[in-house]
Design goal:
Blueprint lengths: L7 E2 L11 E6 L4 E6 L21 H8 L2 E10 L7 H6 L7 E11 L5 E4 L1 H4 L4 E5 L5 E3 L1 E6 L4 E5 L21 E6 L7 E12 L13 E4 L11 E4 L4 E9 L8 E6 H14 L9 E5 L2 H7 L7 E6 L4 H5 L6 E5 L2 E2 L3 H8 L7 E8 L2 E8 L12 H9 L2 E4 L2 H7 L5 E4 L5 H5 L6 E5 L2 E2 L3 H8 L5 E7 L5 E7 L1
Antiparallel strand pairs: 1-15, 2-3, 4-5, 4-7, 5-6, 6-10, 7-8, 9-10, 11-12, 11-14, 12-13, 13-16, 14-15, 15-16, 17-18, 18-19, 19-20, 19-21, 21-22, 23-24, 24-25, 25-26, 25-27, 27-28
Length: about 475
């Protein structure tokens, strides 16, 4: 993975934990720091004028500012006081809840109230409020989130709204002029201009196992509060969602990063159709091909994704791709590195067939690869199967005779335990889960409903067949 010179503020450009504060990474000691502004902040935008007669941003700016919203969130937090370490870690005890405010931006993508933003803008929010450019205010529903791309889809009840039409991020060119539109430092409807300085940039921000990072890098000024705002081209088309900045201070210092709209569009479509994002997997382990690797392997090319290993029985293996192949294109789109391959595969769903071009022995070969989900088949994944995959086990409800013998009213027994949250927490096969976060559970559906939107600590209570009561904690 590529490193970016300077410090990367990890998806925090709009994740303000209270008005007048933001978070940034301290380069000197590598710690996460909260910076508090004790005086009003005035933002100065230094104009970057395009050559006379070449580009006019007025129309694009006017069309965009009415479709970019201010998102305000409220997260209820409280202190913890308890002699029980599990209760102390997972639940509030003895202190009244404290409201913490957050702020960011969002983009209206359809006239009936659908809004794109960053996952980190609304993460853990108990309340989400949307303020339009004309100051109309609405409560918003979070329809779905995708931590792997740091995106979220919101909905407000309104019609005939201004919206920004989708562009095509694959056609974006390095050097192209772009506008960043958002609400930095709570300054509504701020527009800054710059150029695309790189594409397919992986900056190792998202710490998810299956994160997709293929950011559009620009030098348009982006600051805390811009997160979730629009990156538009000179035509006024949406080409990205502003997400992060490179900085040593927590404020803009030269580069900003946006999720390409082609990724965002697929996330939106999946959430609307399935309630969650459907990820396709090609089944390869890959590394960037560069001149050093090419020299070591005796290869005559220096760009592409080098296949280091494959999942036996996986999509690529079954199609005929082999270790040592160099993936250079997918459906006629050139692939220069791992990041570009991940971005392209991330635009498909399980069951889709992608034509993958590889170089093998200096000859071009093409394979039709039927992509799969991470369970190894081509089915669409439900929220229930996704949660069970994370837990790493089957959960079997007990019958009445078993419940009576155990002296419990309900429970689900852990079976077929594999690597996952349960095994990582120390749970053994045969354990009977009776409560999740202090709520009695009687079915697999109740367990998955309790966990599918959970983001934080989980307390599992239950009993083993020998009568031993046990408590386990882990994070989702």
């Amino acid at each position: 993975m590529k490193n970016v010179t300077g410090l990367i503020v990890a998806a925090l450009t709009g994740a303000i934990v209270s008005l007048g504060t933001h978070l940034y990474l301290d380069k000197k000691n590598g710690t996460l720091t909260q910076q508090v502004y004790t005086a009003p902040i005035q933002q100065v935008n230094y104009p970057m004028a395009a050559p006379e007669g070449s580009v006019n941003f007025v129309e694009a700016a006017n069309n965009s500012i009415h479709a970019v919203v201010h998102i305000k969130t409220k997260v209820m937090r409280s202190g913890v006081r308890s002699s029980n370490p599990f209760q102390q870690f997972f639940f509030d005890q003895g202190m009244p809840p404290q409201a913490q405010q957050g702020s960011g931006s969002g983009v209206i993508i359809s006239g009936d109230g659908y809004i794109l933003t960053n996952n980190h803008v609304v993460k853990n929010a108990d309340e989400v409020q949307v303020v339009l450019d004309d100051q109309r205010t609405y409560s918003a529903e979070v329809l779905g989130t995708d931590p792997n791309t740091d995106l979220a889809l919101l909905k407000i009840n309104e019609d005939d709204l201004a919206f920004i039409p989708y562009g095509n991020s694959e056609s974006v060119q390095v050097g192209e002029w772009v506008l960043a539109v958002g609400n930095p430092f709570n300054l509504n409807s701020t527009v800054t201009a710059g150029i695309v300085s790189a594409k397919g940039r992986n900056i190792n921000i998202l710490k998810e196992e299956f994160a997709i990072e293929s950011f559009i890098q620009t030098d348009a000024a982006v600051n805390p509060g811009n997160s979730g705002g629009a990156l538009v081209n000179a035509k006024g088309e949406l080409i990205g969602i502003n997400t992060a900045i490179a900085s040593t201070t927590g404020s803009y210092a030269g580069y900003s990063f946006a999720v390409p709209v082609n990724i965002a569009r697929k996330v939106v479509d999946d959430i609307l159709e399935f309630g969650m994002v459907q990820r396709a997997f090609i089944g390869v382990s890959i590394s960037d091909l560069n001149t050093k690797v090419a020299s070591e392997k005796g290869l005559n090319v220096s760009e592409g994704a080098f296949v280091t290993s494959l999942t036996k029985g996986g999509a690529a293996y079954e199609a005929g791709i082999r270790e040592g192949d160099i993936i250079v294109a997918v459906d006629a789109v050139n692939i220069k590195n791992v990041t570009e391959l991940q971005e392209k595969i991330g635009s498909y769903r399980p069951g889709d067939v992608a034509q993958v071009a590889v170089l093998r022995d200096d000859k071009m070969r093409k394979f039709d690869v039927e992509l799969r989900n991470r369970n190894g088949d081509t089915k669409m994944v439900s929220k229930e199967t996704e949660v069970l995959f994370q837990l790493g086990a089957d959960l079997q409800p007990l019958n009445q005779e078993q419940l009576k013998r155990m002296g419990i009213r309900s429970g689900l027994q852990v079976q077929n335990l594999t690597s996952g949250k349960l095994k990582g927490a120390g749970i053994k096969e045969g354990f009977i889960i009776t409560r999740v976060d202090r709520r009695v559970v009687q079915s697999t559906e109740e367990v998955t409903n309790a966990l599918n939107k959970k983001d934080g600590g989980v307390l599992i209570e239950g009993v083993y067949p020998n009568g031993l009561t046990a408590y386990y904690g882990f994070g989702m």
